[in-house]
Amino acid sequence: MKRLIYFAVLAAFMSGSVAAQDASVPIMLNYSTLQKKAEKSDEQIVHEKKGLKEKTWISRGELFQDIDNQGLEQLQIGIDKNTLKIFYKDPISTEKKDNTEIFKYETIDYIFEDGRLRGWTRNDPLHEAPLHEALRSYKKAIELEDADKQMKLQEKIKDNLDELKLQFQRSGQNKYFLEEYQDALLAFESILEINEIPVYEGVIDTLMINYCGIVAREIGARQMRQGNEDEAEKMYRKTIDYYDRLAELGYGGSSNYIQMTRDYYAIGDTIGAIENLKKGLEQYADSSILVTLAAQAYYLMDKNEEGLDFIAERLEQKPECPAAYYWKGLLITNEDDVEEETIKQALALYDTSLMYDPANANVWYQSGYVNYAVGANYFEQESYEENPDFRKELNEKGVDYYERAIEKLEKTYDIAEDDMTLKKESLDLLKRIYYKLYGGEDEHYIRTNERLQNL
Is residue 318 part of a domain? Predict the structure, then answer.
């Protein structure tokens, strides 16, 4: 395929020559010329003889690549406005709003954000989907060739196809920027389609698979916001298919299963999410995040027994899994009425979790909160109890749990780092505990109150 290279302009640009801006070199592919060629090609492909020649369709593919390239020959995302004007001269007009500026030309508008090119839109385009027409044309050429010569033809046009993939990627990125997600998805999927042509020998483009998954998710989310649940589910499941393919290829690690879990949740398929996480754990048995997400799903569905069976299986495979102990503690207490003995078991499980992962601020907080809640319950019972001996016993139990809570919550505050919510919640509980145990004049209470105010 002919490639248009403007050596004179490029050399002038590299040397910084001002004269280049006034050069008469035809930078942009001529719109009218391309239009006439397109009309002629339309006639040729329906001609009884020319329409059956692979050469006709190859020429058409090259033409429609040029049509897509019109106004984009010298562009790269991120160039500044002065660079664009060196190649394409001054715009007919400009439009500015906030940090966005649009350079308007006869057939194309260029969009700049913060002075850098981000995208473009077409004015009266010659064809709504020139790249898709180019791909259709090349596939038609291959189809028309004799079977024993098809590979040779594919090798002949491989450079064209390579260029076409780059154009599809550029187009997809532009459509994504314009939030025209359906067109962006079609562009990225077309790259995968080209890779299926035998000359590419089964090449796998994991980046494009990832792009397809990302864009399909955007479409699903948009459809969900618009109330189109069936379409949303269709796109989310397409996303899952793409990420499942990445997972099978070993690309992206356990994060693929995390992403797919979110997609299952988005369409309300909790069972699918759990099965997906179990599949992930077959590959990444050491992933605490996958254990957490699976156990959390059982917890939210109130399927405690199934969740505990899952945890038991994980602990059998990996006895030192901190997330498993934590979620076992949560699951055994996931009831309306929980006996104190069960609560003690949960607290012991949290301690075991912290033994294996002492830097987990969430587990420290959970243990502190449970101790606080049990202690507060004993103090409430004390306030209603009339028997002095019973009151004393209830008070001692309440104090014991509060003192345990202090250790856990102070630790939470120390290691929570930038988690301001966790720090605030910990200090809020500590403030209540210190006030109850020592009163408002106590130094611990005053210091905690100051820390809370300074967050």
Answer: no
* Residue 219 falls inside a structural domain: no
Asked if residue 277 belongs to a domain, the reply is no
Neighbouring residues of 119: CB distance < 8 A, sequence distance ≥ 6: 77, 110, 111, 174, 177, 178
CB of 27 within 8 A of CB of 6?
A: yes
Q: Considering its fold, how many domains does the chain have in total? A: 2
Q: Name, in order, each residue with C-beta under 8 angstroms of 358's C-beta and a sequence gap of 6 or more.
A: none
Alpha carbons 117 and 120: distance in angstroms, whole number: 8
pLDDT above 70 covers a percentage of the chain that reads 94
Residue 368 CB neighbours (<10 A): 26
Taking only the tens place, the pLDDT of each residue in 219-251 is 999 999 999 999 999 999 999 999 999 999 999
Segment 302-308 shows an average pLDDT of: 92
What type of residue sits at position 377?
N
Question: Are 346 and 333 within 8 A, CB to CB?
Answer: yes
What's the whole-number mean pLDDT along residues 316-334? 93
pLDDT 10s digits, 371-425: 999 999 999 999 999 999 999 999 999 999 999 999 999 999 999 988 999 999 9
The DSSP string of 112-163 is: EETTEEEEEEESS-S-S-HHHHHHHHHHHHHHHS-GGGHHHHHHHTHHHHHH
246, 252 Cβ separation under 8 angstroms: yes
**Tokens 């793409």 label which residue?**
242
The residue out of 117, 149, 178 marking a domain boundary is: 178
SS3 97: strand
- 442: domain range? 359-455
**Number of alpha helices (DSSP H) and beta strands (DSSP E) in the chain:** 20, 4
Asked which of 108, 143, 178 is the last residue of a domain, the reply is 178
Q: Looking at the predicted structure, is the pLDDT value of residue 12 above 60?
A: no
What the block records as the tokens of 291 is 């254990």
Q: Are 237 and 268 in contact (CB under 8 A)?
A: no
Tell me the backbone φ, ψ of residue 97, rounded to 5 degrees.
-150, 120
CA nearest neighbour of 305 among 265, 292, 313: 313
CB 100 within 8 A of CB 113: yes
CB 223 within 8 A of CB 232: yes
Q: Kindly report the number of other CB atoms within 10 A of residue 248's CB atom.
A: 10
- Alpha carbon of 397 to those of 89, 145, 365, 380, 401: distances in Å? 82, 88, 20, 12, 6
Q: Determine, yes or no, domain membership for 274.
A: no
